[in-house]
Specification:
There is one protein chain. With about 400 residues, the protein is mostly beta strands. The protein has one domain: Neuraminidase (6 Propeller). It is about 0% helix and about 45% strand. It contains no helices and 29 strands. The strands form seven sheets. Strands 6, 7, 8, 9 and 10 form a five-stranded antiparallel beta sheet that branches. A four-stranded antiparallel beta sheet has the order 1-29-28-27, with no helix packed on it. Strand 7 and strand 8 form a beta hairpin. It is globular and about 50 Å long.
């Protein structure tokens, strides 16, 4: 088992939190983690890179609410081919099986001669994985990535990703480029959002912002919700949303969550996140740029009950703070927690804003203190809030996991 002593939390959180756990692979740089929870079980998937190049996806599982984790297992069956970055971490979910313990599915982007969205399943709690398979259509050209994954109460799996097959360049030409200032050379209208139920794929819409994470979630009623950053006229890159009421067979036309009017000639590389509370209300959190008093990214949330209309956006991050890479998790009693990172004192720090009663979100609390923390990922598990993020340099990074009291 892996359970290594680490740094203390900030004073406002420390009395509630035990010693953190470090997840790493010997001789590798471990980074960009994703969590899934089922009761007291927590599955953590991340990328582990070798010094000489090549990245693999690893998984570790906790059966005690994130206090300890199993020895990491390599997921990808094609060694060194995973492509993992902060906004495109591997994804993991528990998949219900009738009369049996849940399977664990892991999704990641693989890059060899082509770019694949790959999925592998473990039937023994993450100790071994079967052969992986691609989710995009055989022979699909072009680049793709920023994939995400969820499962529903009936044991169905649902994946979402961004796809450039409609923009594939002639043989020998680059598929996707950015100008010197980050401007896209190819028009955004060619980028598309794709969905798969694990067997077949379909295009949902075109005109997506290509370098921001996507989000997908399954409701208790069987509905599938999806959010992403869309490119609207004038290069305005706001959050779009759609819902499927038939298990992913069809999706409603996308709607705009909020008219933020963030015009940028390039990819923000900062997408939305989704959470669903026990009464079926869907929360969308996302960053956008404000110009007053000076340009900075702020975190907002909005909610919907019908997938078509949204409440006016509400700010979560403090005024004047510039944030990045938000996540949200909602517990079984409706507890809400939002996370993000911002630069304080010259280094990235992970912040938590939570609320366990009525209302939006409470004041932020810093979690990472002495070492830069990036790309936080939270879940509620085993009666606690479990959050993981990346700490350390590019060549010696590791995953930190902390438990925080849910009350």
């Amino acid at each position: 088992m892996i359970c290594v002593a680490g740094l203390a939390l900030a004073a406002s959180v420390a009395p509630q939190a035990p010693t953190p756990v470090y997840l790493t692979v010997p001789g590798r740089a471990s980074a960009n983690v994703w969590l899934a929870a089922e009761g007291a079980r927590v599955a953590a998937a991340w990328g582990a890179s070798r010094p000489g190049g090549g990245t693999d996806v690893y998984l570790a599982v906790s059966s005690d609410g994130g206090r300890t984790f199993s020895t990491p297992t390599r997921v990808n069956d094609r060694e060194g081919t995973a492509r993992v970055i902060g906004e495109a971490a591997p994804r993991v979910t528990f998949v219900a099986r009738r009369g049996q313990s849940s399977a664990i599915d892991v999704l990641w982007v693989s890059r060899e001669s082509a770019t694949d969205i790959r999925l592998a399943r473990s039937l023994d709690d993450g100790r071994t994985f079967g052969p992986s398979r691609t989710l995009q259509a055989k022979g699909a050209v072009g680049n793709r990535g920023w994939a995400t994954l969820t499962s529903d109460v009936r044991g169905g799996t649902h994946a979402l990703w961004l796809d450039h097959r409609g923009m594939a360049a002639p043989a020998g030409a680059p598929e996707h480029q950015h100008g010197a200032a980050g401007a896209e050379v190819l028009p955004a209208q060619g980028s598309a959002l794709y969905y798969s139920d694990g067997t077949t794929e379909r295009e949902i819409t075109k005109g997506v912002c290509y370098c921001c994470k996507t989000a997908i979630a399954a409701g208790a009623n069987g509905a599938i919700y999806a959010a992403w950053r869309h490119v609207y006229p004038g290069n305005r890159r706001d959050i779009a949303f759609t819902v499927s009421s038939d298990g992913g067979r069809t999706f409603l036309p996308p709607v705009r969550v909020s008219e933020d009017e963030w015009a940028i000639d390039g990819c923000p590389e900062d997408g939305p996140a989704l959470g669903i509370d026990p009464d079926g209300t869907v929360y969308v959190v996302w960053p956008t740029v404000l110009t007053d008093p000076s340009p900075h990214k702020a975190l907002f949330y909005s909610t919907t009950r019908d997938g078509r209309t949204f409440t006016p956006r509400v700010r979560v991050s403090p005024a004047g703070h510039s944030i990045a890479h938000p996540q949200i998790t909602i517990g079984p009693a409706g507890e809400r927690a939002a996370f993000w990172e911002e630069i304080v004192g010259g280094r990235n720090r992970v912040f938590l804003s939570h609320r366990y009663d009525e209302g939006g979100f409470g004041p932020p609390e810093p979690l990472s203190e002495l070492i830069s923390g990036t790309y936080a990922m939270p879940v509620f598990a085993g009666g606690a809030l479990v959050v993981a993020w990346t700490e350390g340099g590019a060549e010696d990074s590791h995953i930190v996991v902390r438990r925080i009291s849910a009350r």
